[in-house]
């Protein structure tokens, strides 16, 4: 099976895309890609997932100007897509960011992109891509599970749960950011948003602060393991999400994921 690279170009620039495709081809790798469509309402960010998730796709490359990487709507879409890819292929799957004519600070990127490789489009790029494409994806341990389910007509659903071998005594999920809110939830088997669910002690409108952000959350006390999940539907486009096992007393271990 020929290893392949999926390329996302953040601006519609055919010459930029052609030059990168030709360079990858010369190094014996398969390549395909798309121009980014910046339409959050239609969840266009999810369109490339079926291609990136294919077994032969070994690296995801994102190329664009620093201004595009700084654009909040693009950042949100890239973060959501990256979370989906990481849920399927693992957090060690290589994502390579190529800023044109500028630099990116990893610390400023949304959480799902913080582990990305920031590279220059120079003579060292192709050997790096070949090496990444032919290196087994390292298994990186994480303390939680996060997946995204973009469902046309039904909205964007976040799936959370404990890591492999762990359990949660219920779950809580909140969002921060103007216009963002949770408006539906459920619990059920891992991997599929349930059509119906029996919720134990469901709660809505729980408010809490973490750092400088205030979150509004929904929660349940359904026990979760690594084969079951809590699902929430989110309206709008949150700047960040905070979630974890339902707090017991004053103890709460929460995870914050920035999305813009």
Structural summary, described in words:
19% of the residues lie in helices and 38% in strands. It has helices at 14-26, 49-52, 66-70, 72-89, 125-133; strands spanning 4-9, 30-35, 57-64, 95-99, 117-118, 144-151, 155-162, 168-176, 181-189, 203-210, 213-224, 228-235, 240-245, 254-258. It has two domains: 4-133, Response regulator (Rossmann fold), CATH 3.40.50; 144-258, Immunoglobulin-like, CATH 2.60.40. The protein has 260 residues and is an alpha/beta fold. The chain contains five helices and 14 strands. A five-stranded parallel β-sheet has the order 2-1-3-4-5. Strands 10-11-8-13-14 form a five-stranded antiparallel β-sheet, with no helix packed on it. Strands 6-7-12-9 form a four-stranded antiparallel β-sheet.
Could you give the distance between the termini?
A: 36 Å
The name of the CATH superfamily of the largest domain reads Response regulator
Q: Which strand order spans the largest sheet, edge to edge or round the barrel?
A: 2-1-3-4-5
Structural class comes to: alpha/beta
Question: From the alpha-carbon coordinates, what is the Rg to the nearest angstrom?
Answer: 19 Å
Defining traits:
Immunoglobulin-like; elongated; 260 residues; 5 helices; alpha/beta; 14 strands; Rossmann fold; 2 domains; 5-stranded antiparallel β-sheet; 38% strand
